[in-house]
Structure prediction request, 522 residues.
Amino acid sequence: MTHRLLLPALASVLLLASFLGGGPVRAADAPPGASSCTGCHASQRIPDSVIPRIAGRKASDIVQFMREYRSGAWPSSVMGRIAKGFDDQQIDAIAAWFAAQPE
Amino acid sequence: MATRRTFLKLTAAASLAVPSITSAQAGGRVVVVGGGFGGATAARMLKALEPKLTVTLVEPNPVFTACPFSNNVLAALREITQQQFGYDGVQKAGVVLAQTAATAVDASGKTVTLSDGSKLPYDRLVLSPGIDINWGALPGYDEAAAEKMPHAWKAGAQTVLLRQQLQAMDDGGLVVISSPANPFRCPPGPYERASLIAYWLKIWKPRSKLLILDSKDAFSKQRLFQNAWAQLYPGLIEWVSLSQGGKVTSVDPSTLTFVTDFARHKAAVGNVIPPQKAGAIAQQAGVADRTGWCPVEPVAFESTLRPGIHVIGDSAIMGGMPKSAFAANAQAKVCAAAVVELLAGRKPVDPILINTCYSLVAPDYGISVAGVYRPDKGVLADIPGAGGASPLEVVGGFRGQEALYASSWFKTITTEVFG
Prediction:
């Protein structure tokens, strides 16, 4: 169960992303909901954090995770509860915005 | 007819007006009062979104001491220095730091008075003063009493004092925590505190007991906490609800006694989590109502009592959102974006906000509550179907994973805000 919670696929991609560094995420024109995400998903690399970064991820990956969290198809601790607050359009907008941020 | 005197008056008025026109052309002036999770975030985000803004953060303390994870300090799992963060990062982000107290706000003249008497003009003001203890709301509990029965609800010297008292207590002593009626800072906080003190007592003073006297009949993540207490600390923690007579009506600091309608409880260590209200500057600025908290509209968090003043964080009435560091940070980002829009003459769009609060029941046992919020009928309302607490039944390493998420969240938010 633990290893599934760690989301190995997402984690490995983000590990790669974290090597590339990246600047702070700007909230200009961020769609509703996006700025709250950075409360956990940092705009910068955080040493020893188990929470993956999402800045610079492929939009289609973020959309897929959010939909699967929301439906419960992908198990999660807190993300399922959060994803249920967003409809498809809102998820698409947030995913596109994070995808456009520096990794 | 323009006399010399009126001419001088006019030039004086004109010269007063000039800086505001110039600075408006340069992006405008925003003053942020309070350098906690709300204010420091708002200041940084304002500057990041609109670099032409002059953003001044007014905060008298050179170092911020964070409340989240300060219960770990009580249980000797962390040191208070690990809770402390300076403002170098905030200044490097282009924010002007005024290391002094704001003593008054003139909402019509749009100025903030600082402790040296000087006035800071603003186009928009963001207040994020956090809580003040509502001294006098609980008979017997004043600032002197807090030296005997610490509240430790503003992290710092009070946290260290409570930890010292716990360490000096004889094994077998009774620790009493009183928890206030809603609303108050960090709704699950008293119960996380009870949990981590129990964790520490079980190891170091195993004959001791912990009593929670509550002015409520229900609390955040209640079943999760109570299930965990039964599992991890059987017989150690007793919770007395409001309807069971748990409401503390007065305290006697000279004997460390908590008085309820039905009993007197004499503690070996007494922790009074007292009634609270919005920070003093909010009261002074006229943005707090009779409840002691600040009503705001749910899009830009502008005061419904004083236009041009935004209030975020623990001091504001935020509908369904709890008073948490996560919420203050989320509100600050939304507020900053909205203030930039308003200064540019545009209308901010309706936001969506998220809150996530982790609590530790033991160092490797975490639980959480989350919510998603949007403006609805003039308040920030829970989006139905979203949010909620961790599941009651879990398998595998779920609680351990949430404990890891808790510490990762703390590292993340403190780096984002102060790093």
